[in-house]
């Protein structure tokens, strides 16, 4: 069983349309915050790797499936599961729930990138090892 990173986000007024329903671009902004929190939790906060080390993790692929609407005031639980660690990319599956009810899911690929050259790079070994620690054994 893979190790997952889980965190909660409140669906705020500004995340919703006039009917109080979650606005999908806001979902992606929330997801980006979850990704940033994940990197901080594994010891590679964006403010350090971007400003000091000059590398980043841009999204190179993202698909989302929205199964049920979410509403202003809902507390959403984001579960991030690493499913593949490549030479210079990581594949992540996302599930988003409100209580026991699934709301949406996503499949995302992030790439390691040198920010000054705008080229891919091999994961630094400590980063790769930490990402691999999230994979299912075997």
Question: Please, could you describe this protein's structure?
Answer:
The chain has 138 residues and is α+β, with helices and mostly antiparallel strands. It is built from three helices and eight strands. The strands form two sheets. The chain has a five-stranded antiparallel β-sheet with strand order 1-4-5-6-3. Strand 4 and strand 5 form a beta hairpin. It holds the Pfam family 4HBT_2. It comes from Alsobacter ponti. This is Acyl-CoA thioesterase.
Blueprint of the fold:
Layout: E1 4-10, H1 24-41, H2 46-53, E2 55-56, E3 59-66, E4 75-85, E5 89-98, E6 101-111, E7 113-114, E8 119-120, H3 125-132
Antiparallel strand pairs: 1-4, 2-7, 3-6, 4-5, 5-6, 7-8
Summarize the structure.
With 138 residues, the chain is of the alpha+beta class.
């Amino acid at each position: 069983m893979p190790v997952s990173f889980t965190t909660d986000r409140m669906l705020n007024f500004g995340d919703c349309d006039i009917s109080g329903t979650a606005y999908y671009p806001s979902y992606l902004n929330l997801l980006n915050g979850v990704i940033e929190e994940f990197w901080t939790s594994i010891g590679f906060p964006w403010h350090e790797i971007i400003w000091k080390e000059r590398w980043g993790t841009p999204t190179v692929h993202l698909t989302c499936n929205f199964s049920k609407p979410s509403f202003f005031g809902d507390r959403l639980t984001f579960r991030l599961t690493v499913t593949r660690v490549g030479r210079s990319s990581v594949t992540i599956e996302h599930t988003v729930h409100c209580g026991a009810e699934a709301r949406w899911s996503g499949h995302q690929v992030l790439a390691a990138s040198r920010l000054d050259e705008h080229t891919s790079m091999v994961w630094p070994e400590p980063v790769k090892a930490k990402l691999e620690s999230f994979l299912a054994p075997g």
